[in-house]
RNA sequence: GGCCCUAUCGUCUAGCCUGGCCCAGGACACCGCCCUCUCAAGGCGGAGACACGGGUUCAAAUCCCGUUAGGGCUACCA
């Protein structure tokens, strides 16, 4: 029990789970798995104003989707306020903390002045010196107050960090920070330390944005005479512009990537590689492989930039490798969103559905792309891509050719790729046309795009009826083109004739 | 402003601790070629980096100092 590894992820439900938080959770999870320890989920919701139930639900949903399952929790800090108050009493009675009656505005004013004067200034409460009677009187008068920690005037504090190494801070730069707010709620510095002690956390692994706060927390551990956990501060993930991740960078939430058709395994894999590497040249890992390889020694100290391009590549690798059956639920969901899902695809046309997925697996980088490509097999309500029309349809005199091909399709027997290819080439040859002209036009007719898998595979899967009906649509389009052209010619003739 | 962290191809990184094997390796992206009905996938090839300046040393991407740049903290947010 005493040497069991216990790590935690402690999000604050003030927003969705973004990639930075997800990576912190992942590293903790990997570490716990690697060491055969426990991964605990704790929710730091002591800031009532910014925390919401909805955010918490989203965070939990994202973690489950990623497969980051926790062994204990979620423990809500808002459920254990009494605990923090007990610790405040402890700190008060041992003289490590004091009531501070100073008004927040006054302190801010002083801080501002000091900053303008370029002075190094930290708050050292004058109320430290208040006598017991004076404190009693103010308390009785119900003067608003906070509880602050008595930071030593001098000395140094060294954080021995598993990732960052030894980092030393001077007490003179640390102010008397608040432990308990005037509404009697604990601040982060208190609740975080208390919970890490109470939960028996052995390694505090979190974002490097907390490194500068660590000396404060070390002071609290010391004042409490508590056993120190180890610390590991992870580099922060930056946006593609090198700036801190924020709303400006668009959607960076885990939820967003799920909606865009990314696979949880790919997201995990990508995030793991953002700040950690196995020391060799492998790039693609399952979660299990990651956890057996993961060590803090191989975590970097510099901040990586989030690269959507590489995530997409990895996602494509996953889509390519995974058996079609595993993609089925996600593709199904995406097709439902697009309104072209048919229950038959899960029943009698299941083989067809699988074949469609397989046809596009090597071409799609996201599930959404996959679904977009499959949609034309389910519905005729797709648009012809303008660039495709311009390159392969307009001005090509295709009407007779396409009509002939549509008719010839009636004779194809059996309906198969080889027969289809022979037929197409025969039709084109018979009219003294390039097979390519017909191929490109057929492609636009069948899927609306100028690129797709091999046209004979597409025809084969599309089937005779749907293929002919899509060619019909193209024929109608071509006829309209012709009439429009004839009309234009007539107008020109009239205009010039006059 | 003060304090702290970081700095290898455009990006993620290997190498740095334990100097020589590094005129720096891999991956994404990019470019070219092959395959080909198109697009992918695949195969082959190309271009591309030790931030800068000092020092230590026979020798520095690797050690030290400084500069610059980026990031973090500096809240009764976490």
**Strand neighbour order, sheet with most strands:** 1-2-3
Approximate shape: elongated
The total of helices stands at 20
Biggest sheet, open or closed, and with what strands and sense?
3 strands, parallel
Could you walk me through the main structural features you see in this protein, from its secondary elements to its overall organization?
- The chain contains 20 helices and ten strands.
- It has 498 residues and is mainly alpha-helical.
- Helix 1 links the parallel strand 1 (6-9) and strand 2 (38-43).
- Helix 12 crosses helix 14 (367-378) and helix 16 runs antiparallel to helix 17 (417-430).
- The chain is elongated.
- The chain starts with 5 loop residues before the first strand and ends with a helix.
- The model has no long low-confidence stretch (mean pLDDT 93).
- It binds one RNA strand of 78 nucleotides through helix 4, strand 7, helix 6, helix 11 and helix 18.
Task: Give the tags.
single chain; three-stranded parallel beta sheet; three-stranded antiparallel beta sheet; 20 helices; 10% strand; elongated; RNA-binding
Please outline the helices and strands.
Blueprint: E1 6-9, H1 19-35, E2 38-43, H2 53-66, E3 72-76, H3 81-93, E4 97-100, H4 104-116, H5 132-140, E5 146-149, E6 156-161, E7 165-170, E8 178-180, H6 188-198, E9 203-207, H7 214-224, E10 230-234, H8 254-259, H9 264-273, H10 287-293, H11 308-321, H12 324-337, H13 350-361, H14 367-378, H15 386-392, H16 399-409, H17 417-430, H18 435-447, H19 455-462, H20 464-497
Parallel strand pairs: 1-2, 2-3, 9-10
Antiparallel strand pairs: 4-5, 5-8, 6-7
This protein binds one RNA strand of 78 nucleotides through helix 4, strand 7, helix 6, helix 11 and helix 18.
């Amino acid at each position: 029990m005493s040497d069991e590894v216990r790590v935690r992820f402690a999000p604050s439900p003030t927003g969705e789970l973004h990639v930075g938080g997800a990576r912190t959770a992942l590293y903790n999870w990997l570490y716990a798995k690697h060491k055969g320890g426990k991964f605990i989920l704790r929710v730091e919701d002591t800031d009532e104003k910014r925390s919401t139930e909805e955010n918490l639900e989203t965070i939990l949903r994202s973690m489950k989707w990623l497969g980051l399952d926790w062994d204990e929790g979620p423990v809500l800090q808002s459920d254990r306020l009494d605990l923090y108050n007990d610790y405040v009493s402890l700190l008060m009675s041992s003289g490590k903390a004091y009531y501070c009656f100073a008004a927040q505005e006054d302190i801010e004013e002083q801080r501002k002045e000091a900053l303008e004067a370029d002075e190094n200034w930290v708050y050292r409460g004058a109320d430290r010196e208040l006598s017991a009677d004076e404190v009693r009187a103010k308390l009785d008068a119900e003067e608003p107050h906070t509880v602050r920690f008595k930071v030593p005037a001098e000395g140094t504090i060294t954080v021995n960090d598993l990732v960052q190494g030894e980092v030393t801070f001077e007490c003179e730069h640390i102010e008397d920070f608040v432990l308990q707010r005037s509404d009697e709620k604990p601040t982060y510095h208190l609740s975080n330390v208390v919970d890490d002690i109470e939960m028996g956390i052995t390694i505090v692994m979190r974002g490097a944005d907390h490194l500068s706060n660590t000396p404060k927390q070390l002071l609290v551990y010391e004042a409490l005479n508590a056993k120190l956990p180890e610390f590991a501060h992870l580099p922060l993930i930056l946006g593609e512009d090198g700036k801190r991740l924020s709303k400006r960078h668009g959607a960076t939430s885990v939820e967003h990537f799920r909606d865009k058709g990314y696979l949880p395994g790919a997201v995990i894999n990508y995030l793991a590689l953002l700040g950690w590497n196995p020391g060799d040249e492998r790039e693609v890992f399952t979660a299990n492989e990651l956890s057996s390889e993961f060590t803090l020694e191989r975590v970097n100290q510099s901040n990586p930039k989030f690269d959507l391009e590489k995530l997409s590549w990895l996602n494509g690798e996953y889509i390519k490798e995974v058996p079609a059956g595993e993609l089925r639920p996600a593709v199904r969901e995406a097709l439902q969103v697009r309104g072209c899902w048919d229950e038959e695809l899960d029943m009698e046309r299941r083989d067809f559905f699988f074949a469609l997925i397989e046809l596009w697996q090597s071409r799609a980088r996201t599930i959404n792309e996959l679904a977009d490509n499959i949609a034309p097999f389910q519905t005729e309500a797709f648009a012809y891509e303008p660039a495709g029309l311009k390159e392969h349809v307009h001005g090509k005199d295709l009407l007779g050719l396409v009509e002939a091909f549509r008719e010839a399709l009636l004779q194809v027997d059996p309906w198969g790729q080889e027969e289809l290819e022979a037929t197409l080439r025969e039709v084109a040859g018979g009219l003294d046309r390039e097979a390519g002209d017909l191929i490109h036009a057929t492609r636009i007719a069948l899927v609306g795009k100028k690129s797709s898998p091999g046209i004979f595979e597409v025809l084969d899967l599309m089937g005779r009826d749907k293929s002919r009906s899509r060619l019909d649509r193209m024929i109608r389009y071509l006829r309209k083109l012709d009439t429009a052209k004839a009309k234009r010619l007539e107008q020109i003739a009239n205009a010039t004739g006059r």
